[in-house]
């Protein structure tokens, strides 16, 4: 559900400042082109937390704060086997739960949040995760971003997930001038069709992790370079830029990329296999590793340290 922006409240959506000097119509057209181009580049973009139902996604997303999706995905199979639903989690032994989720960090606070949110789901929603943003954000540990992740990926309700990658790219694309996640959600929501919001979020985060890095964006190897007003902010030499690509796009990961493109429905599975292989091949500790989404075997073992599903998410 989109937030109400100041402009929406005043009925002056056209006046939201973007700084590119384009009309709202031109901006919408360019946003649509970028979205379509990203869809072509990342047909396998997906939520990167493993889950089978809304309960599992809420829990996984709460766990993903300050750690990687990879780490969460390693933790949740045993967790969900032990606590398969909100009722079981509400009655969890705190010490046992803390031990099970210890590797995700901040395990005491996360344990408290999980037991609290599970108890509330049982007491207030008869054990069923609510499918409304207004209800979700009242659960312990669930903010607007988490709620949109759950709505978009577990309920099929379009939502824009604004994480650190999305903020950076939305600003580079000239879709917003704001740094405020709620305002960014509103600004981008005004440019892109609602039905596209969830997948747009995945695509933008995938692009941010692989190509449009915070420090050294690979402009010379970017599929939306001709549509981006920030082209040139990073490396423009195609050969040098290609070396900056990460995960399945990184040089040497062509086989993984081919597999992911060849069967997009199994892309997550292929990515996880590659992650497992990378871990097995790694001789060093994996703490803090694996920037969430889709790592290929050659991916660096340092990674995202902020929340996301798909960081993304
Ligand atoms: S052209 Fe450069 S700044 Fe723009 S999206 Fe591509 S990598 Fe990012």
TrEMBL record:
UniProt biased composition (Low complexity): 282-300
Q: Which intervals of the chain form a coiled coil?
A: none
State the EC number(s): 4.2.99.18
Q: Which SMART domains match?
A: ENDO3c, FES
Q: Which Gene3D superfamilies match?
A: Helix-hairpin-Helix base-excision DNA repair enzymes (C-terminal), Hypothetical protein, domain 2
- SUPFAM superfamilies assigned: DNA-glycosylase
> In its keyword annotation, does this UniProt entry include Iron-sulfur?
yes
Classification via InterPro entries: DNA_glycosylase (IPR011257), Endonuclease-III-like_CS2 (IPR004036), Endonuclease3_FeS-loop_motif (IPR003651), Endouclease-III_FeS-bd_BS (IPR004035), HhH-GPD_domain (IPR003265), HhH_base_excis_C (IPR023170), HhH_motif (IPR000445), Nth (IPR005759)
Q: Which residues form the HhH-GPD domain?
A: 63-210
EC class of the enzyme, as a word = lyase
Which reaction equations make up its catalytic activity? 2'-deoxyribonucleotide-(2'-deoxyribose 5'-phosphate)-2'-deoxyribonucleotide-DNA = a 3'-end 2'-deoxyribonucleotide-(2,3-dehydro-2,3-deoxyribose 5'-phosphate)-DNA + a 5'-end 5'-phospho-2'-deoxyribonucleoside-DNA + H(+)
GO terms for biological process, alphabetical = base-excision repair, AP site formation
One example GO MF annotation: DNA binding
Q: Where does [4Fe-4S] cluster bind?
A: 212, 219, 222, 228
Q: Which NCBIfam families match?
A: nth (TIGR01083)
Query: What is the similarity comment for this entry?
Result: Belongs to the Nth/MutY family.
Physiological role: DNA repair enzyme that has both DNA N-glycosylase activity and AP-lyase activity. The DNA N-glycosylase activity releases various damaged pyrimidines from DNA by cleaving the N-glycosidic bond, leaving an AP (apurinic/apyrimidinic) site. The AP-lyase activity cleaves the phosphodiester bond 3' to the AP site by a beta-elimination, leaving a 3'-terminal unsaturated sugar and a product with a terminal 5'-phosphate.
Q: Which HAMAP family match?
A: Nth
What is the designated name of this protein?
Endonuclease III
UniProt organism field: Arthrobacter terrae
Species lineage:
Bacteria, Bacillati, Actinomycetota, Actinomycetes, Micrococcales
């Amino acid at each position: 559900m989109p937030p109400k922006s100041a402009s929406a409240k005043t009925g002056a959506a056209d006046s939201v400042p973007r700084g590119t000097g384009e009309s709202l119509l031109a901006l919408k057209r360019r946003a649509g082109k970028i979205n379509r181009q990203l869809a072509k580049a990342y047909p396998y973009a997906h939520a990167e937390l493993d889950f089978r139902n809304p309960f599992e996604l809420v829990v996984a997303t709460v766990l993903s704060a300050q750690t990687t999706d990879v780490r969460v995905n390693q933790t949740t199979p045993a967790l969900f086997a032990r606590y398969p639903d909100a009722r079981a989690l509400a009655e969890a032994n705190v010490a046992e739960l803390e031990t099970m989720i210890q590797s995700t960090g901040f395990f005491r606070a996360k344990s408290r949040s999980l037991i609290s949110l599970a108890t509330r789901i049982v007491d207030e929603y008869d054990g069923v995760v609510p499918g409304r943003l207004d209800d979700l954000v009242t659960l312990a540990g669930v903010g607007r971003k988490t709620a949109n992740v759950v709505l978009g990926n577990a309920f099929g309700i379009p939502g824009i997930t604004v994480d650190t990658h999305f903020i950076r790219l939305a600003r580079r694309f000239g879709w917003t001038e704001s740094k405020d996640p709620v305002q960014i959600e509103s600004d981008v929501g005004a440019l892109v069709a609602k039905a596209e919001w969830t997948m747009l979020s995945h695509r933008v985060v995938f692009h941010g992790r692989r190509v449009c890095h915070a420090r050294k964006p690979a402009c010379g190897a970017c599929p939306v370079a001709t549509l981006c007003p920030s082209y040139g902010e990073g490396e423009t030499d195609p050969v040098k830029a290609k070396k900056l690509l990460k995960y399945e796009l990184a040089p040497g990961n062509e086989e993984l990329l081919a597999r992911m493109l060849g069967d997009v429905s199994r892309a997550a599975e292929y990515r996880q296999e590659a992650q497992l292989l990378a871990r097995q091949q790694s001789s060093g500790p994996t703490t803090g590793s694996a920037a969430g989404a889709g790592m290929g075997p050659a991916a660096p073992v340092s990674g995202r340290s902020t929340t996301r599903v798909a960081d993304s998410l």
